[in-house]
Amino acid sequence: MTEDKTNISPVKLGVKIGRLCLKNPVMTASGTFGYGEEYSPFFDLGRLGAVVVKGLSLQPRAGNPPPRIIETPSGMLNAIGLQNVGVEAFISQKLPFLRQFDVKVIANIFGETIEEYQQLSAILSKVQGVHAIEVNISCPNVKKGGVVFGTDPAVAASVTRKVVAETDLPVIVKLTPNVTDITPIALAVEDAGANAVSLINTLTGMSVDIESRRPYLANITGGLSGPAVKPVALRMVWQVVRAVKIPVIGIGGITTAADALEFLIAGAQAIQVGTASFINPVATMEILDGIGDYLIKHNLKNIGEVIGSLRV
Amino acid sequence: MTEENNAELETGQIMANTGLAPGHFLLVIGLPGSFPRPAPGQFVMLRNLQNGETVLSRPFSVYGFRTNGDSATLELLCRVAGRGTQLLSRLDVGAKVGILGPLGQGFTIAPAVKRIILLAGGVGAAPLSFFLQEQARGTSPLPTTAFLGAKNAEIVTALEARFTGLSGVHLATDDGSIGYHGAVTDILGRELQGGDNESTQILACGPTAMTKALLRALGDKPVRCQVSLEERMACGVGACLGCAAAIKDARGEIAYKRVCKDGPVFDIRELVWERLL
């Protein structure tokens, strides 16, 4: 277990995402951490700022046929197909495990119609142990829905409005980078009542096996994640931070504390770690410790002194 | 069912890296003595700490494991399949590597079993060798016969090294350079005709073509059979859902299971024939 330096040092790492108070800015990204169980043997989940669970749909989903993943330069493509146990099974079978830990649980949701998003919001709002909803309007791996919602500002706003109407929980809208300009979409969901935005989801990519002359993925295309996407993600976070007033959560290729700090300096209130956990199950803990070390090294007392401190 | 959740994340050191045959190498990795003893059929995720080019760890079945008080030695039998394994084949003695494991569900021998048949295709021999190693440590190893197939004589004789003390070892090569010329499953049929199939269990590991041929060869004979599958992996612990395999349950309903967590060992009759790539 990595040493918990936050108790020893005088630095304050707490951040606020609207009404949601996190003990630190380190969250796990949806789809990369299951429902928490698989990684619990490696560190105390209670040290995380939040766990964002695998995306939930109304009904269970089987997901895509294999092959579902392929490594690419400095990253990987995935076409999992949003396989999940469904919201009811999450509540009865998966959530109780997470509730054992002192960690905020954020339920990521997606639907094929706006009504499904609405229903998911309503269902999860009545559940003890869920602290916020993250709305996936951006998965590029599903053939219908997903991309459509997140690439049109009006549609994105409509989904947001319906989700917000059904709940008192903080609503975070997760944006897709597969757009010409992410700023109008961020502004539209802010206007529609989103309490925060998180970005980026994966970039659509492809990889071909030159011996078989077939795509490596059964789905042909997939979502690119990992270090390769970091410069794009960081640029988009910076753009959105300058456009909206609501908090921005940064996601994309964060592997080390230095990566996380880039996003915080650019204005993100918190960050999510995804692919890095596959490579190193304790990556989130090393990032958390590294952020604390940076503050100490620079004689800073509070993470707030770093957030948005980009000099341009 | 193998022990759940006893996996650890450790840094190991390469103690030896030996070429066994073209494209095949043996890694001997030093680990702390506290590393949990793997069960046959379990695997580890090997992370290359020397080279930043490849991002993901690579999964390898445990080929050998010994403890010696403060230290343990893990052996992995590897084939160069792509860039990641090519870089791993160049690891120097002394190099640090990341080891996550032991992972997955290993082989289980049913209580009624009195005879074991091992069926290996290429590096599929690795977990079956470890099964033999562990069986030999036990009090009453069961009579065991092995069928090993590979591309050619050089490879199959390297893989054959640890298949000792058996009732019989039968070789097959694609090019006929040693043993039977053709698919290893062709020579399995004779073994299944003699002997009591109801108390026989087959443990198999090899390419998908071999698994399909094995399914055909079994037909509806009442032989127990477990297969260890392979699939590209990212996390190796069951979180990412990347390593899906179509598996049918007792009612015949098909779902995607995780080769890393629900497998890699499955009952052959759970595999969905039409979906085997």
Structure description:
The complex is a heterodimer of chains A (312) and B (277). By secondary structure, chain A is of the alpha/beta class. Chain A has a single domain, classed as Alpha-Beta Barrel (TIM Barrel). Chain A has helices at 87-98, 114-125, 147-151, 153-165, 182-191, 230-243, 257-266, 276-279, 283-297, and strands spanning 15-17, 20-22, 26-28, 50-52, 69-72, 75-78, 104-109, 132-136, 171-174, 196-199, 203-206, 208-209, 214-215, 221-225, 248-251, 270-273. In chain A, strands 3-4-7-8-9-10-15-16 form an eight-stranded parallel barrel, surrounded by six helices. In chain A, strand 15, helix 7 (257-266) and strand 16 form a beta-alpha-beta unit. In chain A, helix 2 packs parallel to helix 4 (153-165) and helix 5 crosses helix 6 (230-243). The radius of gyration of chain A is 18 Å and the shape is globular. With 277 residues, chain B is of the alpha/beta class. Chain B has three domains: 8-103, Translation factors (Elongation Factor Tu (Ef-tu), domain 3), CATH 2.40.30; 107-225, Nucleotide-binding domain of ferredoxin-NADP reductase (FNR) module (Rossmann fold, 3-Layer(aba) Sandwich); 229-277, Dihydroorotate dehydrogenase B (pyrk subunit), domain 3 (Ribbon). Chain B is 17% helix and 36% strand. Chain B contains five helices and 16 strands. Chain B has helices at 83-88, 125-137, 153-159, 184-193, 208-218, and strands spanning 8-21, 24-32, 43-48, 58-61, 64-68, 71-79, 96-103, 115-121, 144-150, 168-173, 180-181, 200-205, 224-228, 244-248, 254-258, 265-267. Chain B has a seven-stranded antiparallel sheet. In chain B, strands 11-10-9-8-12-13-16 form a seven-stranded mixed sheet, with helices on both faces. Chain B has a two-stranded antiparallel ribbon with strand order 14-15. In chain B, a hairpin with a 2-residue loop joins strand 1 and strand 2. The longest helix of chain B is centred in the middle third of the chain and has 13 residues, at 125-137. Chain B is globular. Classes of the chains: A alpha/beta (312), B alpha/beta (277). Chain A binds chain B through residues 31-34, 38-42, 54, 62-71, 74-76, 78, 80, 83, 226-227, 275, 277-282, and chain B through 5-7, 9, 47, 54-57, 84, 98, 100, 231-246, 255-256, 261, 275, 277.
